[in-house]
Amino acid sequence: MSADRPAIRLRGLTKSFGAGNAVDGVDLDVVEGEFFSMLGPSGSGKTTVLRLIAGFEQPTSGTVSLQGKDVTDRAPFDRDVNTVFQDYALFPHMTVLDNVAYGLRVRGVGRRERHERARAALDTVRLGGFGDRKPGQLSGGQRQRVALARATVVQPKVLLLDEPLGALDLKLREQMQVELKELQRELGITFIFVTHDQEEALTLSDRIAVFNEGRIEQLGTPAEIYDHPVSPFVAAFVGTSNVFSDELSLRVLGRGGIHSVRPEKMTVERLESPLSGDRSATGVLAEVIYLGSSTRLIVDLDAGMRVVVQEQNDARRVGDEERGARVRVAWSDRDTVVVVADRRTESLDPAP
Amino acid sequence: MRLSRPARIVLAVLTGIILAVIYLPLIVVLINSFSTSTNLTWPPPGLTFEWWVKAFHNEGALNAIGTSVQIAIVATLVSLVLGTLISLALQRFAFFGRDAVSLLVILPIALPGIITGIALNNAFRTIMGIQLSIATVIIAHATFCIVTVFNNVIARLRRVGMNFEEASADLGAGLWTTFRLVTFPQLRSALFAGGTSRFRAELRRDHRDDVHGGVEREDPADLDPRQPVPAESGPDRQRHRGCPRAGLNRADLRGTAPRGGRESHPLRPTRFSARRAR
User: Fold this and answer.
1) Are both B176 and B206 inside the same structural domain?
2) Which residue ranges traverse the bilayer (chain A) (predicted)?
3) Local structure of A184: helix, strand or coil
């Protein structure tokens, strides 16, 4: 795990398809053994970056290095990375065992050995005994695991996963998240995980790159990304945020700049009860949504903004407020994240 | 694709009707070929193998069939290989002039057969100075066949997409290995469909005969040994029978009226000249 020889190094990576850049000057180092997520909305360039790393696309400019070797001009089959595709791309005319053994077959591994290793790989994804079936006879979750076995049986240095859980239902997705994490720990290889699901990225990753319009908007650990978003985009995209624009910040917080407060850091209280935070704003309770373990309250502030508050359910909370009631939203100033500093104070404070 | 039960029944009935419309007349002809009657009497008054025996002893007919099969096989094979290569090139790669190539491949079925026929005749004889032969017939037929193969294969390639090829490359397979192990197996049924439909069309000579500019259209009645042979196509034409399509010369082409030219058609000699042996 040396900093000068990362598993993946991208420098000035740019890819344009006709008009505009799908990927616009991405610099990135991914450490060996890391579970790294690329998070962003569709069209943000995260999948294109993955395809550039795999070699399915040629960059317009910039370089891709794997283990310190420049592979920008190498074909996909000449790169020591393997991909788990979004739709799995299992060969429909081959059995599950032949699918998993494919990478070994094209490397010239003998029939007996490759079948043995493919069976072992199927065992690790708990699909032993499914080898003789065709991919069409498997469920989505099983296909997903076959795709994982197929990509890992050739022991790549880096595994690329392109929204691998996107096609699964919620229950299965949560189960597969745990399995992915375990598999990554077991194999000890670098995982590059592309997703548009911020919760998935936060749960699984060692580090996350948040993509927006072909650029990395923020790079950091899940806690850094969640607690200290560096732009309104990240604040809004990763989790739910109440983002105060410059004008609203002046009105509510008494200072300029853009600020963000997480819903779970806020509480809703009656006007007559004592103030619990050092920041507050009054408004009208617009909606109360019961979520089981918590309740989501939507408040239209008098300052002209709608905020979302999420509170854990306890005896005090349940059935406490009614829609249309006048309430106070309170929170602490240290939970107020400065996303963009006040330009007015900056301009008053000339650079040395 | 799952169909509802009523939809399946309707589909089955329609398929049955279409097959009946196509094959019942052919079956009537087949049954009649064993009939002792000479004028399609129904039901057949008696059973005889006479016509079949005659047909199997007719050297011209056998030669014609042999030549047709030979041309069909070679032209089909050539077009399978070339059609697949063209489809892969046009579907998987972007290059200058791709649309033009695509148009050129499809053009032979868009143009009337006679135009392509005359054009090829001119190209072979006048421009290249090649004598017409089985080889030129095969080339001409292959230009037609490629389109069918091309259409089948490119539709399949479009449907399958690049995913499997990318997955294969990702797992370490080179271009050829990917084609052999992944692309080709996906194409097999498309190739089979394209190949067999072409082979069938070849044998039936579905299209106008290209190089030779003929407008022949053989229906099964043409091969009925019981039909009297018109006087115009006497035995003097028999010299062509060794290679019925390739044996033409320019004079034949000119002498062939664009339509209704059957009487003077050079293929006439391949007909059974046997008259009723009564």
Assistant:
1) yes
2) none
3) helix
Going by C-alpha positions, the residue among B64, B51, B52 that lies closest to residue B270 is B64
What is the reported pLDDT for A206? 94
Chain B residues whose CB is inside 8 A of the A83 CB are: 166-167, 170
Residue A249, CB half-sphere, CA atoms under 13 Å: how many?
A: 22
| pLDDT value of residue B238 | 37
Residue listed under structure tokens 């945020």:
A241
Residue span of the structural domain in which B86 resides: 59-278
Task: Count CB pairs under 8 A between chains A and B.
Answer: 60
- Residues of B contacting chain A (CB within 8 angstroms): 163-164, 166-174, 177, 181-182, 185-186
Q: What is the mean pLDDT of residues B200-223?
A: 48
User: Which CATH superfamily is A242-340 part of?
Assistant: Nucleic acid-binding proteins (2.40.50.140)
Residues B64 and B49 grouped into a single domain: no
**Per residue in A266-310, pLDDT tens?**
988 888 888 887 888 999 999 888 888 888 999 999 988 999 999
Whole-angstrom distance, CA of residue B109 vs CA of residue B145: 9
Burial of A234 (0-12, 13-18, 19+ CB in 10 A): buried
**Residues B190 and B210 grouped into a single domain:** yes
Q: What mean pLDDT comes out for the span A144-159?
A: 91
Check which CATH number belongs to the domain holding B84 and give it: 1.10.3720.10
Interface test mutation site (partner A, options B170, B183, B188, max chain A beta carbons within 10 A): B170
Q: Are residues B72 and B41 in the same domain?
A: no
What is the per-residue pLDDT for A315? 57
- Domain spanning A8-237: CATH 3.40.50.261: no
CB pair distance less than 8 Å for A75 and B169:
yes
Give bridge partners of residue A310 from the DSSP assignment: A296
For range A161-175, the mean pLDDT: 85
